[in-house]
Amino acid sequence: MDKIKERYSGFELLRIVAMILVLIVHVLICLPRPTTDFAIAEPFKAISFYFTDAISIICVNVFILISGWFGINLRLQRLSILLFQVFFFAIVIWGVLVLIEPSKYMNLQSLTTVLMLNGSDYWFIKSYLGLYLLSPILNIFVENVSQKYYRNILILLYSFQTIYGWFSIDGAAWIAGGYSAFSFICLYLLGRYIKKYGDAITVGRYFKIRSLSKGNLLLLFLSIAFLLTFLAYTVTYIGIPIEGRLFTYTNPLVILESIVLVLLFSKIKFKSSIINRIAFSCLAIYLLHGNELILRPYYGKWIAQWYSCETTTNFIVRTSFLILAVFIMAISLDQIRLVLSKIIFSKSKCV
């Protein structure tokens, strides 16, 4: 754990922020999206919904861009530790639910969820594993091509993804709107490029993107979020049913927004062992509440009930407490996993 303490904490804080945004995204997917009638009758609520979505939708892209920034070093022991963490949470969740409702969860379907055999089971983990296993090949590419060739490949990849994974969201079903290893590979390569050649990337004719101040980056980030909010509200207000397309991981504006936030946090230099330790366990937050046995039957159900039955203030308060409770519970539970990992993988330098 000593290595974790020595890290700068800017990116570790960003991991935590991104995971909180994941929790918020999973709140939004449980709520009805604004309709034209709602946008006309309740403009403030509709705009608030879209602004929250615009801020939080970057969560997954940010995680993968960070992986690209630092690079993935494939080691079988690290892979084993990651899989142990995933199945630790899957088995604990299943075990607790079996104790609570054995007739509902002691069956083959629940076991297939534990093993991630269904399409929606821990989709992020399966996509990340695809990226993880291909990372040695990607790293060889990054280190052995010219900047121009690298840039052109990125342009081709993102042109393809934008056309067939955003304009035509089902044009290439395997891109899945960003829910895929392909999109993760694109983001990883983009993150590596920004880290390696960021000083050569310009905004307009005069400003190098890495030279922008924290204030300017924050302003750019908020400007993109407000633009997404404005576009979503406008198309909803006039009755064009495409606002959901704006809030996908493959939207170029969402990708740009994610890049800007990563660059902003790259300029934040401080050290905090507490932040680093929490960040080291932040995947546990997704593994706990994002499990399909929990996400819709419990997390999503509670949020939907509060939204329909409570005042806006009570809904926000209850949902905030739920997010905090999930955060604390997941980090605490992961400490048990860390102890077990240290015992099982005693030679690992990652635990």
UniProtKB/TrEMBL annotation:
Pfam families: Acyl_transf_3. GO terms for molecular function: acyltransferase activity, transferring groups other than amino-acyl groups. Keywords: Membrane, Transmembrane, Transmembrane helix. It comes from the Bacteria. The chain crosses the membrane at residues 12-29, 49-72, 79-100, 120-142, 149-167, 173-194, 215-240, 246-266, 278-295, 315-333. Residues 10-331 form the Acyltransferase domain. The keyword Secreted does not apply. This is Acyltransferase 3 domain-containing protein. It comes from Prevotella histicola JCM 15637 = DNF00424.
